[in-house]
């Protein structure tokens, strides 16, 4: 007889493990299925984000930024440094230690909340009035478990290019790019999105010559145009070579190098010889082998599972969250959906506003935004006001030596409701939280303008941008 649970979650990434914890907090019996294994074959919680995504990449970004600042930017503070060297193995060990601490932390939370961790791959067998049957295989003898409710949280995987073999040695995706044993002299990156820019920045800071090749003729087209222009200028100044509107013609690997042939926007062909190539052309939903057909579900033309505004699928008592459904592929969006679904199962009435999900790129400076861009408002024909304030006029930014960038705020022309906030700056990932809170409560720009902010602080730029919406910024 199979084990039965009130809630079964398939996937223990940020969406899945948070959904499991919230369901357990609400008093339900919960099981969470996870198949992730590290290179030693040890099963791990945390999914892509904790193991080969958000957490390790931010660890390497921090290490590489500290290296670059020490090597090139501390002299202005009166600090003399004779020589700086990077021990890549030690940097990687630090990264691995952080990952291990985080994943072990989730194991502790599972024990604390009495969540059953079922190790292996979950596959739907059938669904009936008695419950939803799922086979778990890959860790010893297969078993079948039954759930009254099931949450699909299997995340996403790297999109690969046709005819470009990713071997995780010379040609890598995000996983391989987090495990280089040495700094490549020349590094090619296909894709100028979040992953390409972050990982390209890591290795550029450590000494690699980095060329980023992007198929789109526009840089960061999802961001506000003013943010895209500022970021392109700053990244180019730092030494990232970014080419837009390119077409990859061929990728040829040799024993210790890879040649990337491409045509630029004018049609002129070039070849870039690199020691490594990172393929960062987006991610695709991870629904392989789920057995969706056995419960009357399938994926749409884009590979996602269709859900309603509350993440319900067409199949009764089966939900899907995170990267396998519509909306941005962001860990914090998956977490909020996980909490929402657990509370819906409990009979509560939560909601999630996808327009209030913040986006962040952890480069230096960071880029963050929430809500509408100016070009979106123009396309919609919505009347709006805008206010912008540069960090070059912020005392705290000057004091810490990070005065690049700005805060830009967009507000409705009549009601003054904040419609979008866009930031390029150090610590933009933290600053954007104020804007998210304001937009969730339908605040006006005047609300931010009249709130006292600490001085000196980077957050003052948010207030100044809000003041600038009405043309009354105090420090420019």
Automatic annotation (TrEMBL):
Gene Ontology process terms (BP): 2-oxoglutarate metabolic process
Miscellaneous comment: The active site is a redox-active disulfide bond.
Residues reported to bind FAD: 58, 122, 154-156, 323, 329-332
Cell location: Cytoplasm
E.C. numbers: 1.8.1.4
UniProt domain Pyridine nucleotide-disulphide oxidoreductase dimerisation: residue ranges: 357-466
Reactions catalysed: N(6)-[(R)-dihydrolipoyl]-L-lysyl-[protein] + NAD(+) = N(6)-[(R)-lipoyl]-L-lysyl-[protein] + NADH + H(+)
Known cofactor(s): FAD
Residues involved in NAD(+) binding: 191-198, 214, 282
NCBIfam families reported for this sequence: lipoamide_DH
Limits of the FAD/NAD(P)-binding domain: 5-338
Record-level Gene Ontology MF annotations: dihydrolipoyl dehydrogenase (NADH) activity; flavin adenine dinucleotide binding
Keywords: Cytoplasm, Disulfide bond, FAD, Flavoprotein, NAD, Nucleotide-binding, Oxidoreductase, Redox-active center
Enzyme class: oxidoreductase
Origin organism lineage: Bacteria, Pseudomonadati, Pseudomonadota, Betaproteobacteria, Burkholderiales
Pfam hit, one: Pyr_redox_dim
Active site per the UniProt annotation: 455 (proton acceptor)
The protein's name in its UniProt record: Dihydrolipoyl dehydrogenase
């Amino acid at each position: 007889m199979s084990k039965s649970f009130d809630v079964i979650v398939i996937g223990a990434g940020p969406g899945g493990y948070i959904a499991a914890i919230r369901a357990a907090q609400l008093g339900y019996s919960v099981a969470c299925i996870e198949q992730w294994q590290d290179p030693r074959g040890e099963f791990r919680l945390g999914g892509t984000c904790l193991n080969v995504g958000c957490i390790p990449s931010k660890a390497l970004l921090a290490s590489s930024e500290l290296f670059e600042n020490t090597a090139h930017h501390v002299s202005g503070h009166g600090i003399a440094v004779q020589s700086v060297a990077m021990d890549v193995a030690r940097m990687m060990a630090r990264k691995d230690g952080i990952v291990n601490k985080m994943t072990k932390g989730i194991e502790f939370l599972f024990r604390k909340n009495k969540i059953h961790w079922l190790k292996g791959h979950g596959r739907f067998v059938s669904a009936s009035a008695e419950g939803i049957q799922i086979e778990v295989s890959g860790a010893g003898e297969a078993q079948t478990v039954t759930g009254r409710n099931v949450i699909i949280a299997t995340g996403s995987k790297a999109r690969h290019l046709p005819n470009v073999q990713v071997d995780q040695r010379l040609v890598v995706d995000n996983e391989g790019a987090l495990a280089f044993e040495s700094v490549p002299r020349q590094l090619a990156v296909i894709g100028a999105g979040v992953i390409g820019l972050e990982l390209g920045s890591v290795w550029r800071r450590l000494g690699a010559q980095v060329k980023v090749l992007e198929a789109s003729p526009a840089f960061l087209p999802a961001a506000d145009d003013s943010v895209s222009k500022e970021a392109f200028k700053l990244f180019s100044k730092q030494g990232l070579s970014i080419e837009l509107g390119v077409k990859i013609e061929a990728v040829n690997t040799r024993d210790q190098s890879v040649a990337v042939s491409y045509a630029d926007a004018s049609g002129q062909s070039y070849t870039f010889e690199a020691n490594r190539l990172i393929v960062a052309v987006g991610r695709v939903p991870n629904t392989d082998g789920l057995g969706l057909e056995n419960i009357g579900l399938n994926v749409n033309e884009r590979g996602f599972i269709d859900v309603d505004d509350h993440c319900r699928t067409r199949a009764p008592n089966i939900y899907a969250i995170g990267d396998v459904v519509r909306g941005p592929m962001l860990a914090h969006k998956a977490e909020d959906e996980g909490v929402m679904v657990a509370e819906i199962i409990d009979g509560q009435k939560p909601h999630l506003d996808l327009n209030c999900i913040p986006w962040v790129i952890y480069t230096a400076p960071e880029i963050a935004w929430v809500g509408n861009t100016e070009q979106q408002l123009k396309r919609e024909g919505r009347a709006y006001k805008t206010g912008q304030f540069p960090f070059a006029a912020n005392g705290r930014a000057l004091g810490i030596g990070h005065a690049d960038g700005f805060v830009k705020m967009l507000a409705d022309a009549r009601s003054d409701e904040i419609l979008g906030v866009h930031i390029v700056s150090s610590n933009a990932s933290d600053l954007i939280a104020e804007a998210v809170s304001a937009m969730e409560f339908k605040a006006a720009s005047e609300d931010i303008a009249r709130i006292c902010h600490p001085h000196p602080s980077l957050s003052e730029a948010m207030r100044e941008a809000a003041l600038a919406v009405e043309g009354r910024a105090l420090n420019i």
